[in-house]
TrEMBL record:
InterPro entries in UniProt: CYP11_CYP27_families, Cyt_P450, Cyt_P450_E_grp-I, Cyt_P450_sf
Cofactor(s) annotated in UniProt: heme
Family: Belongs to the cytochrome P450 family.
GO molecular function, one term: monooxygenase activity
Source species taxonomy: Eukaryota, Metazoa, Spiralia, Lophotrochozoa, Mollusca
Protein name as catalogued: Cytochrome P450 CYP12A2
PANTHER family: CYTOCHROME P450
Alphabetical list of SUPFAM superfamilies matching this protein: Cytochrome P450
Keywords tagged on the record: Heme, Iron, Metal-binding, Monooxygenase, Oxidoreductase
Keyword Oxidoreductase found: yes
Length: 319
């Protein structure tokens, strides 16, 4: 018999996600979905939120190798630290933030954009090519989708919410096309100059994915779309929830402040400094334990029959 704790610790080889707003005919890899939906446009974009099983693993594995290993993550600390410094500089001179959400979405988009494309998008000073309003529209649609437990009409007909979501995703997708086209041009240039290996030694997720032997430009497009949207949502939500908890527990806030001050002082945040801030990591982990930083929340799809709390749960059931 499984407990709830063991349920969430259940390790599956591949994830399986519930049908969602990303699973419509515009963005589905499921031929049956394309045949049954009534959306007139069909774009064969296999984005990761709509992919399950081995197809997911094929797309995700190259990115995991480049991003999720400790040494890979530490390579981006200096780059992202500059974004954080600019964020602090913008608000440290006073002023009131009336709505925290768009502010954190600005910061998260700038950070994740730097991670994915190795360049600043100008989101925090409103000079960038990404319209933050479209990012928020995507999150709103995902939030509505995650709370819709019954029939989802937007999977079959073009509802106002779906049209808003489509416009927003098309905007982000168009930006991606330009960035990937420019990156491919740069790679061809440095390759012709015989400097490709030297160029790829620098941390650059986009170029590394485009140079991966098992990744096509379309695969890179799909992978980055997922990393970009999911990264912005999880980063902005985790930050807001972390700050909320620290504001409620000011003794813990003071303890965290002392740790950061003792480790970093007046210097920059480095990978060595981050490695020595165990309480900071604990605060982030506890925040993510209490809350879910993404709209769908945490659930599992068992690949075999189990007994959970005295109840028989058939294989393939979402919990």
């Amino acid at each position: 018999m499984l407990s709830t704790t063991k349920c969430f610790a259940w390790r599956l080889r591949f994830p399986f996600r519930l049908p969602n707003v990303f699973s419509t005919s515009l963005y589905s890899s499921n031929p049956a979905a394309v045949q049954t939906t009534k959306h007139p446009e069909v774009r064969p974009l296999e984005d990761i939120p709509g992919v399950n099983g081995e197809a997911w693993a094929r797309l995700r594995k190259p990115a995991q190798q480049l991003m999720l290993r400790p040494l890979a993550v530490s390579a981006y600390v200096d780059t992202l630290s500059k974004v954080a410094e600019d964020f602090v500089q913008k608000y440290q001179d006073g002023g009131t933030i009336e709505d925290l959400r768009p502010v954190l979405v600005d910061y998260a988009t700038e950070s994740v954009g730097m991670l994915c494309f190795n360049r600043r998008f100008g989101c925090m000073d409103k000079t960038g090519i990404i319209d933050i309003k479209f990012i928020e529209d995507i999150f709103d649609a995902v939030d509505v989708d995650s709370k819709s437990l019954g029939f989802k009409p937007y999977l079959y007909v073009s509802t106002p919410m779906y049209r808003k979501f489509k416009r927003a995703l098309d905007h982000v997708y168009s930006v991606f096309q330009v960035e990937i086209k420019n990156a491919l041009s740069t790679l061809e240039k440095v390759k012709a100059e015989g400097k490709l290996e030297e160029y790829l030694e620098q941390p650059n997720l986009l170029y590394s994915l485009l140079s991966h032997p098992k990744m096509t430009p379309a695969d890179v497009d799909r992978t980055l779309l997922d990393l970009f949207i999911a990264g912005i949502e999880s980063t902005s939500n985790t930050l807001s929830l972390l700050w909320f908890e620290l504001a409620k527990n000011q003794d813990k806030q003071e303890k965290l402040y002392k740790e950061i001050s003792s480790v970093c002082g007046n210097g920059d945040v480095t990978k060595e400094a981050l490695a020595n801030m165990s309480y900071l990591k604990a605060c982030v982990r506890e925040t993510m334990r209490i809350y879910s930083p993404t709209s769908p929340g945490s659930y599992r799809r068992f690949d075999k029959d189990v007994v959970l709390g005295g109840y028989h749960i058939p294989a393939g059931t979402y919990v």
